[in-house]
Automatic annotation (TrEMBL):
Originating organism: Streptomyces sodiiphilus
Official protein name in the record: 3-oxoacyl-[acyl-carrier-protein] synthase III C-terminal domain-containing protein
Highest taxon of source: Bacteria
Source lineage: Bacteria, Bacillati, Actinomycetota, Actinomycetes, Kitasatosporales
Domain Beta-ketoacyl-[acyl-carrier-protein] synthase III C-terminal: 218-307
Classification via PANTHER family: 3-OXOACYL-[ACYL-CARRIER-PROTEIN] SYNTHASE 3 (PTHR34069), BETA-KETOACYL-[ACYL-CARRIER-PROTEIN] SYNTHASE III (PTHR34069:SF2)
Length: 308
């Protein structure tokens, strides 16, 4: 069974949203909306660090990896953005070399937007199951560098942070995946950018779609909303999850939103950033079931139920 053997994060320093007013071209009204309504008071940014630097900083905190590099069969890059570095730079290959993962096959998964992190865990579990070696591991690295203005924010929805994670995936008993579901409601032309029509459609379907994919993941795991100790969502904004919790019948206090005000929306790394924080705070006990969930541009949705 797919399991999360270890999760580490790297969160760069937080920059107040008010300091981003000029670079993002935000109006006073937009600043107020992001801070007072959405709860996005600060965004973690690392202007002096490359994507490779960020990913290595997260992976370097995986103490369990030291001396076990030979067991890592796959190095998987979960990309919230299709392009994360200028050609011909490959942060993934640089990470592989720096970590000494000579036995690891590098690959990337994308096109699920900010739901790609959960997809990468499922891909890792599928590859490890087919590999047949119970000692084999996969290392998933997630989170993106906002190196273009396009990648720095989603207009009137969220502001993107540069927090990253490293997740060591195995087939043991730690944080076992009980159910995973993905849902894509794409356009026929394949466009994922939020133009005016796309934004209206995304807003119209969002709550129903996130509820649908969560219900399917719960069903696959053989549990219900009442069986969840905690929900670890993507940090898009406070309002969307306040509404979703009410629609799903989940008590507000079970949805972990503490990081929104200090990280911003860190692409597909968010659920794992929230996992690390929840564990550090002692919010998950052995046997607790919890839900990770995300949504991405292109109307992609994902949910994963795990047991701590």
């Amino acid at each position: 069974m797919t399991s999360l053997e270890a999760v580490s994060t790297y969160l760069p320093p937080t920059v107040p949203v008010t300091d981003l007013r000029e670079s993002l071209g935000l109006s006073d009204q937009q600043v107020r909306r992001f801070t007072r309504l959405y709860g996005l008071n600060g965004i973690c940014q690392a202007p002096g660090e490359s994507e490779t630097d960020l990913l290595l900083a997260a992976a370097g905190k995986l103490a369990i990896l030291a001396g076990q590099e030979h067991r890592v069969r796959y190095l998987i890059r979960a990309k919230g953005l299709r392009t994360t570095a200028p050609y011909p730079v490959s942060p993934l290959l640089q990470v592989r070399e720096k970590l000494g993962l000579r036995h690891a096959q590098p690959l990337a998964v994308a096109d699920h937007g900010c739901a790609t992190g959960l997809l990468a865990i499922d891909v890792a579990g599928t590859l490890l199951a087919a590999d047949g070696d119970p000692e084999a591991l996969a290392l998933v690295v997630a989170g993106d560098k906002t190196f273009t203005r396009f990648s720095q924010w989603v207009e009137d929805v969220s502001i993107m942070g540069e927090g990253v994670v490293a997740v060591l995936v195995g087939s043991g008993a730690r944080d076992r995946v009980l159910g995973y579901e993905a849902l894509i409601i794409g356009r026929e032309d394949g466009v994922i950018d939020l133009d005016a029509d796309g934004a209206r459609e995304a807003k119209r379907i969002y709550q129903d779609a996130i509820a649908e994919v969560i219900a399917k993941a719960l069903d696959a795991a053989g549990t219900t909303v009442d069986g969840l100790r905690l929900v670890l969502p993507h940090n898009v904004n406070r309002v969307s999850w306040t509404v979703a919790a009410k629609n799903l019948g989940i008590p507000r206090e079970r949805v972990f939103l503490d990081n929104i005000e200090r990280t911003g929306h860190c692409f597909c790394a968010d659920p794992f950033i929230n996992y690390r924080s929840a564990c550090d705070l002692g919010l998950l006990k052995p046997g607790d079931r919890y839900l990770m969930t995300s949504a991405g541009l292109g109307q992609s949705f994902a949910a994963m139920v795990l047991e701590h």
